[in-house]
Automatic annotation (TrEMBL):
InterPro entries found in the cross-reference section: THDP-binding, Transketo_C/PFOR_II, Transketolase-like_C_2, Transketolase-like_Pyr-bd, Transketolase_BS, Transketolase_fam
Pfam family, one: Transketolase_C_1
EC number: 2.2.1.1
GO cellular component, as recorded: cytosol
The protein, known as: transketolase
Subunit comment: Homodimer.
The UniProt record lists the keyword Transferase: yes
Length: 366
């Protein structure tokens, strides 16, 4: 029986050489040559939300990687998870015009835990890189399946958008506060909060290469795309943390601002304000604690040198865990209570995510 099967498989490979090459690549868990060149680059002349940037990256990667399957728990338009032009994974008997039993777009329904479990099953089959999206606040509903994915080291990617009070008027029921910290507590899960569109592209590339559980925490609101002629390359994001910009004066830094996601732009603004007060500070973007911890001690020291104890972390969530990077002398600009219903601009100002508060924190330490 085995000989007969092998003969049929050899015949299939000879008659379907392109498909056979793909089958071989997937079986060997390899990626196409030069696949990273498909990652888009974003111009700094236009603001874009990191959820929208992620959607743009998905289109580029999905065109090159047919093993990418995914969708959303009924929030595809908000999560930007739909592969454009792809059919829906539905039986041919479905009334949907996009139905195809070989489709790559999965409609998980309003059931986050089931979505996570389905993703795990797809990943366990092999030859696939499943992804699924919902709002970050709803990650609580899928925690058991996320934990199992981490336990089994599966190549699944969670797209958790609307990642902070920056989502605005939907109010405290939908505004994550404790969620980043709760997810970082899961061993083996990479929790990634990119600061701009180009960090999103680089982080997606690292997720594909690492082939292990990862969650992208993405903004609803538009964010600046940093001018990389004035800031270091977004490729640094793949190391988990990197020096985004050294002191404007060119002096050695007296303090370090460490931020994630939408708050990195605030750190850059505060850097200018501190420069005006003759206080040179370094700005570090830290999208992923887990990746940074995996770097060599020499690299970690180059980003966060021990001789600079004046450090301030900035993240619109609880401060739990940040002392690992700020040290005993540092401070955290954080959110230790639930949010409110108002515009993102009003909320960030009301809850102290301001240049004035950041500069005051640095001055207090110094």
């Amino acid at each position: 029986m085995r000989n007969e099967w092998d003969k049929k498989f050899d015949n299939w490979r000879n008659e379907n050489k392109e498909a056979a090459e793909l089958s071989n690549r997937l079986a060997s868990k390899e990626l196409p040559k030069n696949w990273r060149t498909s990652l888009p680059e974003f111009s700094s002349d236009k603001e874009i939300s990191t959820r929208k940037a992620s959607g743009d990256v998905i289109q580029k990667l999905a065109a090159l990687l047919p093993e990418m399957w995914g969708g959303s728990a009924d929030l595809a338009e908000s999560n930007n998870t739909t592969i454009e032009g792809a059919k829906s994974f539905l039986p041919s008997s479905s009334s949907s015009s996009s139905a195809d039993p070989y489709g790559r777009v999965i409609h998980f329904g309003i059931r986050e835990h089931a979505m996570g479990a389905i993703m795990n099953g797809i990943a366990l089959h092999g030859g696939t890189k499943p992804f699924g999206g919902t709002f970050l606040v709803f990650s609580d509903y899928m925690r058991p399946s996320v934990r199992l994915a981490a336990l089994m080291k599966l190549p699944v990617t969670y797209i958790w958008s609307h990642d902070s009070i920056g989502l605005g008027e939907d109010g405290p029921t939908h505004q994550p506060v404790e969620h980043a910290a709760a997810l970082r507590a899961i061993p083996g899960l990479d929790v990634i909060r990119p600061a701009d569109a180009n960090e999103v592209a680089q982080c997606w590339g690292q997720i594909i290469e690492n082939a292990r559980p990862a969650g992208l925490l993405l903004s609803r609101q538009n964010l600046p795309v940093f001018d990389r002629s004035k800031c270091n390359s977004a490729a640094g994001a793949t190391k988990g943390a990197y020096i985004l910009r050294e002191p404007i004066s060119g002096e050695k830094p007296k303090a370090i601002l460490i931020a994630t996601g939408s708050e990195v732009a605030l750190a850059l603004d505060a850097q200018h304000a501190l420069a005006a007060k003759q206080i040179p500070v370094r700005v570090v973007s830290m999208p992923c604690w887990e990746w940074f911890r995996s770097q060599s001690s020499a690299y970690q020291e180059s980003v966060l040198p021990r001789n600079i104890s004046a450090r301030v972390s900035i993240e619109a969530g609880i401060a739990m865990g940040w002392a690992e990077f700020t040290g005993s002398s540092g401070k955290s600009i954080s959110l230790e209570h639930f949010g409110a219903s108002a515009s993102a601009k009003e909320l960030f100002a009301a809850f102290g995510f301001t240049v004035e508060r950041v500069t005051a924190a640095v001055e207090e330490i110094l």
